[in-house]
Amino acid sequence: MGRCQGKQHFSHPHMLKLIVDPPETLTCNACDKSNISSNFYGCNSCQYFLHENCLNAPRFLDQSYHTSHHLTLLPLPTYSSRSYTCDACGTAGNGFSFNCAPCEFDIHMQCALLPQIVCLCKHHHHELQLIFESPFDDENTIFVCDICQDNVDLSYWFYYCVHCDFGTHLECAISKSVIQQEGKLASQMDVVD
Question: Where are the membrane-spanning stretches (predicted)?
């Protein structure tokens, strides 16, 4: 542990201290990812750890993809199953989420912070826009990811070039992206006090 003062986080009753060069791999309680190449804060006695970015995520967001209500950051799902299905990527989550209780809308914290535009220079010559709803009129449209060649579930978010009808899964675009525009969704966020 580092010798810093520590930080308090709403999700944990104890101060979280900066962890410098941990002897083992740690997993973030917020996003379930490891501590590789990221600062971590934690409470060793409780084995509770957060990436610095997760620790500093805003509590409330107003977003263009969910205009009905603001979204609240929750440390645990409020459902009896203790899990949720992310409305952005379609995968299960049991850690932190941005939630709208009246709409039963939940997204992973990392999905809320996806870049609005990515560039896949080796795969496509135009920027790809993050799409929240299917751009196709026919709901029976089958769309194939131009990176991995698997079907894209059009009820979830994906990256798309409308000019070329080129699209990818979220994870395919992020893993192949060389430039993520600084104008992220995060910059479009209105943080609610």
Answer: none
**Residue 3 pLDDT > 70:** no
Over residues 17-66, the pLDDT tens digits come to 998 777 788 889 998 888 766 788 999 889 999 988 899 999 998 887 88
Q: What's 165's DSSP letter?
A: T
Q: Structural domain of residue 90, as residue ranges?
A: 58-111
pLDDT digit string (tens) for 120-135?
Answer: 878 788 899 999 988 8
Residue 134 sits in a domain whose CATH number is 3.30.60
Distance CA 53, CA 184 (A): 15
CA-nearest of 53, 47, 13, 50 to 34 is: 50
CA proximity to 54, closest of 64, 39, 72? 39
Global pTM exceeds 0.85: no
Burial of 93 (0-12, 13-18, 19+ CB in 10 A): buried
By the 8 A CB rule, do 117 and 108 touch?
no
> How many whole angstroms separate alpha carbon 45 and alpha carbon 31?
20
**163 and 133 part of one domain:** yes
For the beta carbon of residue 107, count every other beta carbon within 10 angstroms. Answer: 26
Residue 11 belongs to a domain: yes
Q: Is residue 141 part of a domain?
A: yes
